[in-house]
Amino acid sequence: MKNYACAAFIFDGFADHELSLVMTALNRTGQFTLETFSTRGRTVTSGSGLRVMPHTSLSYVTPEDFDLLILPGGDQWEKGDNLEIFPLIEATAGHRLVLAVGSATLSLADLGLLDHIPHTGSHPGYFSRYCPEYAGAPFFSRQPCVIADGIITIDSAALVDPACTMLALFDTLQKITADNHELFDPAC
């Protein structure tokens, strides 16, 4: 059984609960490993106050290093920070899977990656508020998790709302390897 590498971008204030829940869902198959990276490779403090030492820095990460890029939410996305990660997101989109949770979906909207594909998030007005050039409102879907063209968006409310079925979200994430095997295995 092949293991798939997940690269997670962590930064001061990142939503560690979002990363934890996504990795819990993925690890139900036992096929995923996690490597973390921060902009400079230094310890960061999550939104809950957890100090996390990343495996490496952004300058050492390329799309060839991982199968899945994970972008957890955090206030920095709403402040317009984390711009250093944009080139990696652009280089990854279309070649590897990109998973954005909560406010991290703003990075995808800001780059225009959500303008023509189904996606989810807080609501269309949320994207327009922080990304004035966002044109994806017609493709917005009020779903906990949407997968389209190698981009996975997750509404953070789905992770904390007991009315949402976490098992359905977990099952959706587990289908990643089956539904996107050509992105994981370039030989396909």
Automatic annotation (TrEMBL):
Gene3D superfamilies per record: 3.40.50.880
Domain DJ-1/PfpI: 9-153
Keyword annotations from UniProtKB, A to Z: Glutamine amidotransferase
Keyword Amino-acid biosynthesis found: no
Keyword Disulfide bond tagged: no
Pfam assignment, any one: DJ-1_PfpI
Record's protein name: Glutamine amidotransferase
